[in-house]
Amino acid sequence: MRAAEQAAMDGGVSEWELMQRAGEGAAQWVARIAAGRAVTVLCGPGNNGGDGYVIAESLKRRGVEVVVVAPREPGTDTAKTARSHFQGEIADSELPSSQVYVDCLFGYGLSRRVEGVFAELLERLAAVPGFKIAIDVPSSVASDSGELLGPEVSYDLTLALGGWKLAHFTMPAMAMMGVKRLVDIGLALPGDAPRLSVTPSISAPATDAHKYKRGLLAIVAGEMPGAPILAAEAAMRAGAGYVKLASEHSHPDAPADLVIVDGPLSETMADDRLSAILVGPGLGRGDDARKRLQIALATSRPAIVDADALHLLDPEMLGQIDASNIAVTPHEGELTALCRTFGIDAASKLERARALHEKTGMTVLAKGPDNLLVGASGVRFFPTGSSWLSTAGTGDVLAGIAASRLAVHGDLFKACGEAVWLHQEAAHLLGPAFTASELAAVVSEAMERFL
Ligand SMILES: NC(=O)C1=CN([C@@H]2O[C@H](COP(=O)(O)OP(=O)(O)OC[C@H]3O[C@@H](n4cnc5c(N)ncnc54)[C@H](OP(=O)(O)O)[C@@H]3O)[C@@H](O)[C@H]2O)[C@@H](O)CC1
Ligand SMILES: Nc1ncnc2c1ncn2[C@@H]1O[C@H](COP(=O)(O)OP(=O)(O)O)[C@@H](O)[C@H]1O
Ligand SMILES: [K+]
């Protein structure tokens, strides 16, 4: 954001002009929401506070009853200018009773824990009823990591100014924000800035498609039969023309349309028609599992590596193959384990995922409520999905979808992105309290949204 703002200023747009665009843009939202009700604007000492004075003045001009609460005088020149343009009432710390609250205490300049008078104000804000709006980011969150640095307030709306910050899509911050909307202030973001994933567009098979052309996926099973079947159920509904399960166990509950190959894994993997591989769900973590993982990765086919396999991957194993053919899909615990194995010591989820990608070359889909994808095309966040996904086996479904998409087109970054969207859409179709097999069963229905 700072680079984008600097570029705009170098191009002749002043900081005051940017602040007016931000404040006026946000005020339009606030005015509609207030719909005649009284508004309280909390202003901090920096430019976030400056935005607050612009919002307050704009609301006043529209005839809205508005009070500003500002415990400190503005500290920046631009915020001082904004303050001087506001003609209305300013209180220094008491939070008046109001129906709409606009929080402009701190934006991306928050640099340490919120304490004293600011913390007290936020605690009071958390306790009062009313519609609460955070300007740019909630004032107690670190915008670059999503870390909480002060009292937690539950907002109804968060208006991001000029561009999304990491906190908008990272836990725990994103859970406080309510509905999120972006206010355009005419900034061009640098090409490598983390971006929100755009809705994917998925094509139906070509007119001359046949099962191999559509993609042959091999799922490498291991000790536990359930997980790879779940992954296969999802994969069969996500686009691949042919899904094979390489397993030495019997699978009495497997669907009739799933081909199970029980010969030696090295033979199954020698098929040069294989388009993609999924290894990890139900694999186990013993010597046999390690051997199966090594055989699977030695094929040099694009692979999704998930679950147990994430505990077996190590630098030595990756040293023998081209790791840029691999996407890993770790949850929080698996990401921690991977970082330990690969000697990565970083604080935030983004830094850890980025370091893992940079150190190994693997594409990293760090899943969870705050899915984060890091790979050849940069960094992507995703809109918030259904929290009902937090049930056992949904990760296997995600891995199955990703592997199926990979078998279709061979692009790891794209496959992982499509998988997150399809997974969330499937959850959305099911509503509350579904099982992982129910989720796998509606993946084809979910695809309809993206065709
Ligand atoms: N630049 C632009 O072009 C545009 C920027 N825009 C807006 O500016 C926002 C960024 O503004 P910003 O950089 O001034 O920082 P901001 O978030 O207001 O806070 C910094 C102030 O707080 C203070 N402070 C920090 N931590 C503290 C703590 N824990 N407890 C107490 N004090 C603390 C810190 O003081 P200090 O650290 O020096 O003590 C400083 O005074 C951005 O989010 C967007 O809303 C838009 O108008 C569009 C154009
Ligand atoms: N609270 C949540 N909100 C949204 N998605 C979630 C939430 N919790 C989990 N998920 C998603 O559900 C899946 C869970 O995967 P994982 O943790 O591997 O479970 P399992 O190992 O049981 O299959 C992931 O895709 C994750 O992103
Ligand atoms: K704020």
Structure description:
- The protein is an alpha/beta fold.
- It has two domains: about 1-195, 3-Layer(aba) Sandwich (Rossmann fold); about 215-450, UDP-N-acetylmuramoyl-L-alanine:D-glutamate ligase (3-Layer(aba) Sandwich).
- The protein is built from 16 helices and 17 strands.
- It has a ten-stranded mixed sheet with strand order 8-17-16-15-14-13-12-9-10-11, with helices on both faces.
- Helix 3 links the parallel strand 1 and strand 2 (about 65-70).
- The model has no long low-confidence stretch (mean pLDDT about 95).
- The protein binds ligand NPW, adenosine-5'-diphosphate (ADP) and potassium ion.
- Potassium ion binds near residues 103, 106, 136 and 139.
- InterPro entries: CARKD, Nnr, Ribokinase-like, YjeF_N_dom, YjeF_N_dom_sf.
- GO terms for molecular function: NAD(P)HX epimerase activity.
- It catalyses: (6R)-NADHX = (6S)-NADHX; (6S)-NADPHX + ADP = AMP + phosphate + NADPH + H(+); (6R)-NADPHX = (6S)-NADPHX; (6S)-NADHX + ADP = AMP + phosphate + NADH + H(+).
Radius of gyration: 25 Å
Total helices: the number is: 16
Determine the fraction of residues in helical runs and give it as a percent range.
Answer: 25-40%
Mean pLDDT reading: 95
Distance between the termini: 34 Å
Corresponding CATH architecture of the largest domain: 3-Layer(aba) Sandwich
**What spatial order of strands do you see in the largest sheet?**
8-17-16-15-14-13-12-9-10-11
CATH superfamily of the largest domain: Ribokinase
Total number of strands: 17
Alpha-beta content class: alpha/beta
What percentage of the residues does DSSP assign to strands (E)? 15-25%
Q: Could you list the spans in which at least 5 consecutive residues all have pLDDT below 50?
A: none
Major sheet summary line: 10 strands, mixed
Q: What is the CATH fold-level name of the largest domain?
A: UDP-N-acetylmuramoyl-L-alanine:D-glutamate ligase
Bound molecules: ligand NPW, adenosine-5'-diphosphate, potassium ion
CATH class designation of the largest domain: Alpha Beta
Subunit structure: Homotetramer.
Organism: Qipengyuania xiapuensis
Family: In the C-terminal section; belongs to the NnrD/CARKD family. Belongs to the NnrE/AIBP family.
Domain YjeF C-terminal: 194-450
